[in-house]
Amino acid sequence: MVRVGDIDRESLRDVAKMSSNVSTSRLNAGSPDQVRRIIKGSDVVINASNPRFNLLIMKQALRGKVHYIDLAADDPHSVEEQMEQSPKWRKAGLVAILGMGEDPGLSNIMARKASDSLDVLNEVRIRDGETSTSETYPFVALFAPDVFLEEAISPSQYYEDGEMKTNPPLSNRELYKFPLPLGEIPLYSMDHEEVHSLPTYLPKKPKFVDFKLALTDEADSAIKLFHGIGLLSRKPIAVGKVKVSPLSMLLRLLPPPSKIAGKIHGSAGVLVEAKGQISGEPYVEKLYAMMTHDEAFEKYQTNATSYLTGTPTAVCAKMVGEDRISERGVIFPEMFNAQPFIKEAKNFDLDVHIEKLKVQQ
Predict the structure, then answer these.
(1) pLDDT per residue as tens digits for the range 40-63
(2) What domains appear along the chain, each with residue ranges and CATH number?
(3) Residue 282, Cβ neighbours under 10 Å: how many?
(4) Nearest to 291 by CA among 245, 217, 345, 251
(5) At CA 209, angle to CA 142 and CA 315, rounded to 5?
(6) Would you say 127 and 176 are in contact if contact means Cβ atoms under 8 Å apart?
(7) pLDDT of 231-254, one tens digit each?
(8) Residue 77 has pLDDT above 90, yes or no
(9) 238 has which bridge partners?
(10) Is 33 exposed, middle or buried (0-12, 13-18, 19+ CB in 10 A)?
């Protein structure tokens, strides 16, 4: 039995229709008591809420002696607070896995697989590719709109030669050629969890790690317009006799990812490009997983980004529940063996493709 908690009643009704093996409860993720009640007696808790609740839910999972998985972080400082809990989790014989969605998550697994394949690991470049068109919506965010917009307007960081370095928002535009069906699309530097964890926790330490996310030219222009006229501000402004933050108003107008399935076309995918050496010779290894939005809707009534985000979490939860991930404490996905995960993912219609090429000098 899967228990699902959410503050939104409509979302709970939608989830309840999916399977008779699902029970639903209204849940305020900011309430320790409510969180503790819903996870009591579970094998694994999957925290898919806003990352600001990570530490609270994680502490309740430890208190309830339940393994824990989340999908993303609020910021590097919050991750440090989570990692500080590791001795308590090891002592309890439990594992807490941080950032186990598409990216972070599947991207970390791919980076670990490349690390295991190469004798020397020099660079890890993570490329999140997405395309979408819609006759219904002029602008869509394929994952949490507030997180997406905040990432887009924030300075990004990358790792190089032992240092974290910073790029301006929406900078370092690159036309990157993905395998089909994505093809060549524009990418921009974004700050992401992998840039902060991979240099430390991969078995082989790369000298360079960065992350870039796809934005169409139309989306890039729209975000710059939103930002320029103040629509992304969280600071309330007076509108008549009430005060409202411009961002909250914009978020009410944008469709949530759960509502765009079947109304968008295009594809989504994540690719990790790792450069290094095998037997002293230069190699590049590319690992990627992709899906079209139409395929995701036809098979699973969702969009491709949501499927690629939720499926790695489900794979990981199954492996934790079956005690096939032996690590204990607080860990990132790159800290456990990638190969069994990749093999299990195929059973969930998630194929990780691997291309290894010797670099001609």
Answers:
(1) 889 999 999 888 899 999 999 999
(2) 2-97 (3.40.50.720), 106-307+338-358 (3.30.360.10)
(3) 16
(4) 345
(5) 50
(6) yes
(7) 999 999 988 888 999 999 999 888
(8) no
(9) 243
(10) exposed
